[in-house]
Design brief:
Low-confidence stretches: 118-124
Shape: globular
Number of helices: 8
Helix content: 25-40%
Order of helices and strands: EHEHEEEHEHEHHEEEEEHEEEEEH
CATH class of the largest domain: Alpha Beta
CATH architecture of the largest domain: 3-Layer(aba) Sandwich
CATH topology of the largest domain: Rossmann fold
Structural class: alpha/beta
CATH superfamily of the largest domain: Response regulator
């Protein structure tokens, strides 16, 4: 089985390729592509692809743009840190939806689904997948160690998460900062995407703090968050359009 991986984060693409080799060694990854543009160029050559694993948020747009422009006949398994795209995913040839970080058991289930499907995908099964994705629960609080004590911080009290010098922190409404035992990539899978947005590799911000936004250089946006002494809280250029849509939902 010939596999194409569309993923703009090299670490995530390599992790998926390693998992595939362990779970289904007969699968061959023919290419790992990072952008909508490169994927379109590759797929327009009509390669013999049996299965596509595709991240949804790529550096130059959403991967749905690819499948709206190229007729892809093989199944697609979407991989993403967000679950709000579930219904859109199944409008293409999407047959499953894996939330990052991808776990081996969940990958095995997706592969078994690929092997069991023939012809058109059963609509009832797709609706069940969408329902499962939409009912995912998110963390409501974080337990933080403060000295020799444990403090509980509810999600409503958190204005932002950020990384600094290889550690991750949460920033509260009271302008206090606490270390959390998760990377930002892990955090974004644990918190409600309707309430938080990862604007760049360093910051995840809550909807409530997005009140002071100005236009910045290179078509980017700049935020100010009370209590965080960082003049460069910038929405990455490739995320600006999605960020605006998130604000305007």
């Amino acid at each position: 089985m010939i596999v194409l991986i569309i993923e703009d984060e090299a670490r995530a693409a390599n992790h998926l390729e390693r998992l595939l080799k362990e779970v289904v060694p007969e699968m061959q990854v023919v290419a790992k592509i990072e952008s909508v543009r490169d994927a379109l160029a590759f797929l327009n050559t009509k390669p013999a692809i049996s299965l596509i694993f595709s991240d949804i948020q790529l550096a130059d747009g959403l991967s749905f743009e690819i499948f709206n422009q190229v007729n892809v006949n093989c199944p697609i398994i979407f991989t993403t840190a967000y679950d709000q795209y579930a219904i859109e995913a199944f409008k293409t040839n999407g047959i499953d939806y894996l939330l990052k970080p991808i776990e081996e058991d969940r990958l095995k289930q997706a592969i078994e689904k690929v092997k069991s499907l023939s012809g058109s995908v059963n609509l009832e099964k797709l609706l069940q997948m969408v329902d499962a994705a939409s009912t995912k629960s998110y963390k409501s609080r974080f337990m933080i160690k403060v000295g020799d004590k444990i403090k509980s911080i509810v999600i409503e009290d958190i204005k932002a998460f950020y990384s600094l010098e290889k550690a991750s922190y949460l920033h509260t409404q009271a302008n206090r900062n606490y270390v959390v035992d998760y990377s930002l990539d892990e955090l974004i899978t644990l918190i409600d995407p309707n309430k938080f947005f990862k604007i760049n590799r360093k910051y995840i911000v809550s909807f409530e703090v997005c009140t002071h936004i100005i236009a910045y250089s290179n078509s980017r946006l700049k935020l100010t968050i009370d209590g965080i002494d960082d003049k460069d809280i910038i929405v990455a250029r490739e995320k600006v359009q999605e960020f605006k849509s998130w604000l305007n939902r």
